[in-house]
Specification:
Elements: H1 3-12, E1 16-17, E2 28-30, E3 33-34, E4 37-38, H2 43-49, E5 53-56, E6 67-69, H3 73-87, E7 91-96, H4 101-112, E8 118-120, H5 130-135, E9 144-148, H6 156-164, E10 168-171, H7 179-182, H8 185-192, H9 194-201, E11 205-209, H10 213-218, E12 224-229, E13 236-237, E14 239-242, E15 246-251, E16 254-261, H11 266-278, H12 283-292, E17 301-305, E18 308-313, H13 319-330, E19 337-342, H14 351-365, E20 369-373, H15 375-378, E21 386-387, H16 390-397, E22 406-410, H17 420-425
Parallel strand pairs: 1-2, 2-5, 5-6, 7-9, 7-10, 8-9, 10-11, 11-12, 12-13, 18-22, 19-20, 19-22, 20-21
Antiparallel strand pairs: 3-4, 14-15, 15-16, 17-18
Helix pairs in contact: 1-3, 4-11, 4-12, 6-9, 11-12, 13-14
């Protein structure tokens, strides 16, 4: 079937899904395959559950009514998403970077949705499957679409850019994330900058943090850009006023008091201000949207309970975000400051060195107590309490009460360090 014909079916049934366990009635099922599963085998099941059509690439499952046989389901999903993106009139803003993508996406969404019909990537649907599914949520009336793009190896951002074809793009930062797949920090810079390559090749616009030396260098060429800076008056002037405990910033005579902690969240807020200003969102609407944004899902959540002040930042971690979190937390004025740090994943050959560095940084910054959790932190030469598994830490906390204090909890998603909360409160 031609993509244009499939798109006509999609317009009549505008819900695409790939998980047969979560069938969308009257939607279109895309039967993806992977190393350990074959979605084709569930085509009959989803049709019986109420799906309108099932797109398959295995002829053995294509004989039944309302199945559509294609050469490759994943390719078809991606091609349909691009076709739909161009069919609709929405401006597409694509975001990538090592840290802060999701928070930035949510802040920009909060700002733009005050004035425009806006959609944004849900959750972390930011890969080669999630980006197409996100694009397919654009409705004919949608005016703005914010698409988050994640990557852990070269050429992935190039592919996602080709699928989403953004009108505007922004890279939050270049940090020590996914070093194993990218092949080191230079690989990260090269891989993330594939978004800049797309924007430049297609005469599109880039949003810029002009105080980030790498961004400024990468965007010093012929690419069209809209930027902010605290000091360079060539760009919109957005300044950080405070970051303890919450970030406050100043723009055009307005003070914006956020509910986000840590100086590293300033740039996430500033880019949302910049995007809003560029798209003529009234300044009072920008202020209201950012001040009303409350982080969740274990991202920079500030929890005050039973005498504890806990900064829960356990959604993800890499050496860059870990360093920023520790340095910001060190400025906390609490009498007692305690760290719970979990392993950082996907660092490859750099894992031992980076975990040792973070352990030494924690000592240098002088926290009152530090608990290190995970196989990599367990291998460090730190004299702090080390626990190979979460269960080991939990057992220790069962016999050792944590005093009322200010606590930072940070680690990669796989560590699920939010589980510590029950042990702290008990």
């Amino acid at each position: 079937m031609e993509i244009s014909s499939l798109h006509q079916l999609f317009l009549r049934h505008p819900n695409a899904f790939t998980d047969s366990r979560n069938c969308i009635e009257n939607g279109i099922y895309f039967a993806l395959k992977g190393p350990n599963f074959n979605g084709n085998t569930f085509a009959r099941e989803v049709l019986e559950k109420g799906a309108a059509y099932a797109v398959v690439d295995d002829a053995a499952h294509a004989g039944q009514e309302r199945t559509i046989l294609v050469d490759n389901v994943l390719n078809t999903l991606q091609e349909l998403a691009t076709y739909h993106r161009n069919y609709c009139k929405a401006k597409v803003i694509s975001l990538t970077g090592s840290n802060g993508k999701t928070t930035t996406k949510e802040l920009i969404y909060a700002v733009l949705s005050t004035t425009y019909s806006t959609i944004a990537t849900k959750g972390n649907l930011n890969n080669h499957i999630g980006v197409p599914l996100s694009l397919l949520t654009i409705a004919p009336e949608t005016e703005m679409a914010i698409i988050e793009m994640g990557a852990n190896h070269q050429k992935e951002i190039a592919m996602l850019s080709a699928i989403s074809q953004p009108d505007y793009g922004y890279i939050t930062n270049f940090g020590k994330a996914h070093l194993e797949g990218f092949g080191g920090v230079e690989g990260v810079i090269k891989g993330k900058s594939e978004l800049y390559d797309y924007l430049m090749d297609n005469n599109r616009y880039a949003f810029l943090n002009a105080d980030d030396a790498i961004q400024k260098e990468k965007l010093s060429s012929h690419i069209k850009k809209i930027g902010f800076s605290q000091t360079d008056h060539e760009y919109y002037n957005i300044r950080m006023i405070a970051s303890e405990p919450y970030v406050s910033l100043s723009f055009e005579g307005q003070t914006i008091n956020t509910q986000l902690v840590g100086h590293y969240n300033f740039t996430n807020c500033a880019i949302a201000v910049l995007v809003g200003k560029y798209f003529n969102v009234p300044i009072d609407a920008i202020k209201s949207a950012i001040e009303g944004y409350v982080p969740e899902n274990n991202r920079s959540q500030l929890i005050k309970k039973q005498g504890y002040e806990i900064l829960l930042d356990a959604y993800n971690a890499n050496p860059t975000s870990m360093k920023a979190a520790l340095e910001s937390f060190q400025k906390n004025t609490a009498n007692t400051k305690i760290l719970f740090l979990g392993d950082m994943f996907e660092l490859g050959e750099e894992a031992e060195k980076e975990h040792q560095y973070i352990a030494e940084l924690a000592k240098e910054l002088g926290f009152d107590e530090v608990y290190l959790v995970g196989e990599n932190f367990y291998k460090t030469t730190s004299q702090y309490p080390k626990f190979k598994t979460f269960e080991d830490l939990k057992a220790h906390l069962g016999t050792s009460k944590i005093p009322s204090s200010s606590i930072l909890i940070k680690g990669s998603r796989g560590m699920a360090l939010e589980r510590i909360l029950d042990s702290i409160y008990s």
